[in-house]
Amino acid sequence: MEADAVDAVARAGDVVVRGPLFGVASQGEGDGPRWRVVLAVTDGCPQLSRDGLNSQLWFRAKDHARDRAERRALLAAVARLETERVDELSVDGTRYRIVRAEEYAAAGPDGMEQPRPTDPEPPVPDWNRGSGSPAIDDGLLLDPGAPVTPTQVVEQLALRGLRYTGERFPEDVRADARRALDTHPDVLLLPATFTVVERRTRSWKPVSGPHATAHDARKSLDFALTWMWPRMHGHIPHDADPQADARTWAAGGAPGGGAPADRRAAQLAAYAGAADALRAGGRVDRLEFQGAEYRIARTRRLLRWGPDGPEGPRPSDVNSQDPVRMHPLLDEDGRILPEP
To answer: Which helix or strand (DSSP H or E) is residue 59 part of?
Structure first.
């Protein structure tokens, strides 16, 4: 892994920053300076993470509270999350915090970095859509004192000063980024994730992800090629059998007959052929289809750390929605109450 990391810098030594991601971490009474990720750091805005914490605490109150006192504390936290943009709260001796990480990727003359040979892969590729996939940040412990490898130390030191500086960023965004260097001077590197990106001109844009493994990102591209995109572009009706995809429709012939059906069958065969190429030859991390290049990109996340732990949302971070009540009302015994 260390050798792969050194080779990766030689191939792709530049850093491309996409923007912030958010999740939820908790700190119990016996955790010391450590925090535990309870909701993966993959949300595009802080409110999505607050809503996720809202749901987690509500279901805990409904199904797992030990007694009325604990349920009251949980429901009080839920009530706050339904009406306020709360970035930290304590429930029954546990602190919960909305945490912020910066998503970035390495890039070089050949584009964005692809999976490394030592990144985790299944012994036998499983393309079954119904099979389970590893969860991002599952059980992840955020420990500023944990040992790190030499290449991780180098990366941490190189990225300690990472901040937004370009004029295309608003002044409040740049000011918050400068301030974070002082309030949260240290950095932790979260596990790598994998994202499908698309390039039609010079720039890359994500089309799915992030995923815990490169193979899960490939599976998402296979699903897009065979199921999602044929429906989005009208090649398969939206009310078709959910099991129908480009492979089955191309093999059976598109319904209706005539020239339009023949064109549809040819288009579906092209989608199926691209997906078959993705499955052929083991670890396929680059695919060209309909004038675009698709790549499995190795994406990374940097979490800033200060004296009181991981950084939370910044004032300039954008929320895409307001807090809202998401679940029915509960009483102290965990029973759902009728709507007033």
So the answer is: helix 46-63
Residues 6+ apart with CB under 8 A from 28: 36, 93, 94, 95
- Residues whose CB is less than 8 angstroms from the CB of residue 84 and which lie 6 or more positions away in sequence, other chains included: 323
What is the reported pTM?
0.92
Both tokens of residue 170?
């608003």
pLDDT of residue 13: 85
Nearest to 100 by CA among 306, 296, 288, 333: 306
Q: For the segment 123-157, what is each residue's pLDDT rounded down to a tens digit?
A: 888 898 888 888 999 999 999 999 999 999 999 99
Tokens of 179: 């301030």
CA–CA distances in Å: residue 181 to residues 16, 72, 160: 19, 39, 8
Q: Are 297 and 195 in contact (CB under 8 A)?
A: yes
- Of residues 14, 204, 206, 18, the one with CA closest to residue 108: 14
- What beta strand segments (E) does the chain contain? 14-27, 35-43, 88-91, 94-108, 111-112, 141-142, 186-199, 204-211, 286-289, 292-306, 309-310
Q: Which two tokens stand for residue 340?
A: 């007033």
**What is the rounded CA–CA span in Å between residue 240 and residue 101?**
40
